[in-house]
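Subject: Predicted fold for FecR protein domain-containing protein, 300 residues

User T.R. writes:
Posting the sequence so we have a shared reference for the thread.
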Amino acid sequence: MLDIYRYHGYGRKAKLHMRSAPDTDPENVIPFGPRGLTVVHQQALRMKRRRARLMKVAAVVAGVAFTVVAGWTLKATYFDTRIATGPGQWDRAMLSDGSVLRIGPNTRLRWAFDDSRRMIVLSEGEAVFEVAKDPKRPFIVTTQIGDVRAVGTEFGVSLMNASTAVVTVAHGKVAVSKHNDARIVTIDRSGDVAELVEDQQIVLSDSGVQPVKQVDASRELQWATGYYEFRGETVREAIEQFNRRNRLKVVMSDPAIGAIAMPFTTVKLDDPETFVLMLAARPDVQVAYENASVIRLLPE
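User M.O. replies:
I've generated the structure tokens; pasting them so everyone works from the same file.
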């Protein structure tokens, strides 16, 4: 019996078994003619030996994966290098270096590590990165808009759309750079990339870079838990939180509804219907289910 071990991105170890068939199996018994092997059986034996060689090669290749990211060829030591979530789906992954990803709905990302860097490519959506310290291998999150570089910290990156990214730092420090066509250009006027520390946030877009601002990072990244605590935000702001993450969309027929202040409450971000029923308890708001994908808020 040949045991082949391979490691997955979440630290799982799978054992594959290749057990040789007993010698008495019909496919392993080759009849001999009066002058030894017949031509047909000689061909069968050669094919069998060739299959055995190919299986050995496949077993070796299965132990290594190669991924091309942002122009670099990186050798990965595991196989689970992609995650995709749908509407209303949250996920969590532990990488081989001990870093943890908390991934929001409608998100696509992939990763590959080598001896000099840890690369994450975020194509869509949002994620929070709890980075394990490794000074020799910086942790880089790259998007179509810009890059975030860290060594050991916790931060979140949200792609609001194809041209806007929001970077929020919960702990530690990160360096942020913005893409300009195929090049990476600096953000601040000193010639260095912008550096963010705890409770700071920056917005990158095709049209430019907004100034770094102070925020409550734990609140800004609260979405990663699947819950959100509203503290007087408007209904419009609440709807944006739900619509970004769910298939069921909430729309307003009157902009005045969007200006209503939300009560102080905690809601599940994958449950827009409970949010709508809470609004329906108000005397000035009606709710209409247009179809399986749309709930409309109407003035009374």
